[in-house]
Specification:
Strand order of the largest sheet: 5-4-6-7-1-8-15-14-13
Structural class: alpha+beta
Number of strands: 15
Oligomer: single chain
Distance between the termini: 18 Å
CATH superfamily of the largest domain: Thiolase/Chalcone synthase
Order of helices and strands: EEHHEHEHEHEHHEEEEEHEHEHHHEE
CATH topology of the largest domain: Peroxisomal Thiolase, Chain A, domain 1
Radius of gyration: 21 Å
Length: 379
Amino acid sequence: MKDVFITRLSKFLPNEPVGNDEMESILGMVDGKPSRARSMILGNNKIKTRYYSLDKNGKSTHTNAEMTAAAVQGLFDDKFPMSRMQLLACGTTSPDQLLPNHAAMVHGLLKCQPVELIAATGACAAGMQAFKYAYMSVKCGNTANGVSTGSEKFSAWMLAKKFEPETENLKQLSENPIIAFEKDFLRWMLSDGASAALFQDKPNEDGLSLRVDWVEIASYAHELDTCMYAGAIKDSNGGTQGWIDMTPEEWAQHSVFSFKQDTRLLGKNIVPSGAKMWKELVERYNIDIENGLDYFLPHLSSEFFRFKIDEEISRLGVPIPQEKWFTNLTRVGNVGTASPYFMLEELMNTGMLKKGQKIVMMVPESARFSYAYAHLTVV
């Protein structure tokens, strides 16, 4: 088995940063009325700016595939051209279409040589599944290099016009034409962008690289219900009915393809399971948190969870001092599968790292509760 190194990281953030007061003018108002939940949600998540692949009128400026291709292109130059790329692994929650898969669409835009492809589709951990696939391919010698990506185009899913059929249906039923909190919640949480990592079997000759020591991913779906979902509705017993078993009329009436979050399940379960896994990993890999960990990169969907996580890992006896935590959520927003890459890219490309430092990435996924952890060493 070979050592594996991340030698380059790049990102693509579309258009100009969008402030909190601009969000609703771009995404639109559902039923022409301001969201009653918006200020509360933004107050909790603490996000100040984010990026949308939309113009000021809510018109699309980039597809998910275009943003991802731009991030991938940023990895290559004359010294290491794209013609040497052997593998492309793409993770996303929000592909532009069901078929072809997201990786194929990105490859089509790159117009390079034939490469091996894999697409991981899910929520936040899908970016780390792509990350692990590229790592394992190089590790076992299947390829000498590989690219993994995380990307999202959430904004188009959250436009007010996408909810018009549902609000009209509610009016006809003489109900209050306000979409449920589970749908409104994510309109103020999610945003767009793409990032990419280049994995190689040798470190950079000049400059720093990140040796990937291990990547661990686990699902807790066997014991926890669906929490974040799209293309489905939930029943009173917690089960789901998928779009494929519904009529087109029902798709529109229930905004079936919107992103939805069961916030009760989220608050109850997202922190404990991930903290339990962290404790198990500390014991398995004999991690010296005090002296052998320099940066902790937790993917936070909201700053609300920072101290919840801190409290729980402290309770389990595996605390990480806040001075070791590094996030950029408040500046770039919650970009799902891309967010872990954004943190790592900023650390690597802004001169913050030194040889010998140790980094742990933590990526929780609330769709049905999966968690990813990775351990890296700066070399």
